C-alpha cells in the first residue's frame, strides 16, 4: 500500500523539467543483436520504439543484460547486428550508480553543478536545480563526501534535470532511497513530460510508473537471449516467474532467487 507522503515537505519535492516534445520515434531499435564476445550473442531480434510518452521498466534475471540494453539505447555501445536510430535533436540523460561513485567527493554539490559546462553554470542556476531535489542550505554547500547515499542520488537527479532531456534512462535509481523518497521519485517521473526507461528491482517504482514491461531473458544451451515486451501486468509477470522457478529449486519461502 502507498505510504503517506507529505509533498509540502521541500525535501520530498522532486521535479524533472521537460524539454520540448519530439515527434515519435525518439529511439528506434531495429532487429538488434549484441554480444561482448564474438560468437557469444547476449540477445538478438530486438525491435522496439521509444517516444516522449514511454514509461518502460526493464526487468529480468541478474546478469541477463538489462544495464547493457540501456547502453545500447544511449549509443555507449553499438549493436553487433541491426540498428539503433535516434532523433537528430534527442537529448537523453542517464542515471547510474557508477556515475555517483565517480563524483569528486571534495566538491560541494553547488560546485559539482557549476562544473557541468566549460563556461560554468551560475551559482543561482545550480542552487535552483539542487533545490528541485531537496538539496538546499548547507546540504548544497557541504563536500559531497558528507552526503548520504540518498542525497548523492538527489545530486545525480539534479544533474539529469539540468540537462533537460527528452528521455530519462535510469539504472537502479532507488538504491539508497527511503520509501518516502521512492514514492516522491515515482510522482516526479509520472509528472515528467518526457519518456522514462528504467531498470529496477523495486516493485513499488515499477507498479507506480511503468505502463510497459520489457523482459530480458537469458540465453541457454548456446542460444542467445531475448528482450520482449510483456503484454500483461507486472503482477502476472511475477506469477509466471513463481511458476517457472517453483520446479527448479529457485524459490525459497515464496521468493524467486536473483529475480524481481
TrEMBL record:
SMART domains: AAA (SM00382). GO terms for molecular function: ATP binding; ATP hydrolysis activity. Keywords: ATP-binding, Nucleotide-binding, Repeat. Residues 27-243 form the ABC transporter domain. This is ABC transporter domain-containing protein. It comes from the Eukaryota. Pfam families: ABC_tran (PF00005). The keyword Nucleotide-binding applies. The keyword Repeat applies.
